[in-house]
Amino acid sequence: MPVFDALAPAYLWLKWLHIAAVISWMAGMFYLPRLYVYHTRATPGSEMDSTFQTMERKLLKIIMNPAMIVTWAAGLLLSFTPQAGAGGWLHAKIALVLVLSGVHGMLSRYRKDFAAGANKRPEKFYRMINEAPTILMLLIVALVVFKPF
Fold it and tell me: Which backbone phi and psi does 45 adopt, to 5 degrees?
């Protein structure tokens, strides 16, 4: 009998929490790089620069970071419930979520560069990096829905 059998009655609530947190996290992951695209056009130290910095900081600290933490916590708890099942798809999903978390960390680093007036990356870079969360999300959802292995 698994240690986490006690989680079985809470399975649907954990699943709900996990999905809600993922939606919040992904909304930020889609929006933050887009803010960076427009932030590259702002002169460091300008009012526009200050506005973007505030938006980016609040998006990360108030929405994205807590949502990522709840996503991970609820997801890990779910993985130990009897309903979770097993399979290579779950390992692949976790690997892709680790990559997504790395992208989150990179986006956080880029915010610090903008805050220091030290951004060296062009608008095109942020337009390209903006696609990474979408691609990762599509792969993760495909694994969850189809459980191919």
Answer: 90, -10
Rounded Cα distance, 33 and 29, in Å: 7
Cβ-based burial of 47 (10 A; exposed 0-12, middle 13-18, buried ≥19): exposed
- Both tokens of 21, joined, read 């947190």
CA gap 115, 10 in Å, rounded: 42
The answer to whether the beta carbons of residues 131 and 122 sit under 8 Å apart is no
DSSP letter (8 states) at residue 46: S
Q: Which of 80, 146, 134 is nearest to 103 (CA)?
A: 134
pLDDT of residue 125: 98
Q: pLDDT tens-digit profile of 54-106?
A: 999 999 999 999 999 999 999 999 988 877 777 899 999 999 999 999 999 99
For residue 2, being part of any structural domain is answered with no
CA distances to 9, 39, 100, 132, 146 from 93, rounded to whole Å, are 24, 32, 10, 15, 12
Could you tell me the residue range of the domain that residue 38 belongs to?
26-146
Q: For residue 11, is it within any domain?
A: no
In a domain, 12, yes or no: no
Q: How many CB atoms lie within 10 A of CB 9?
A: 9
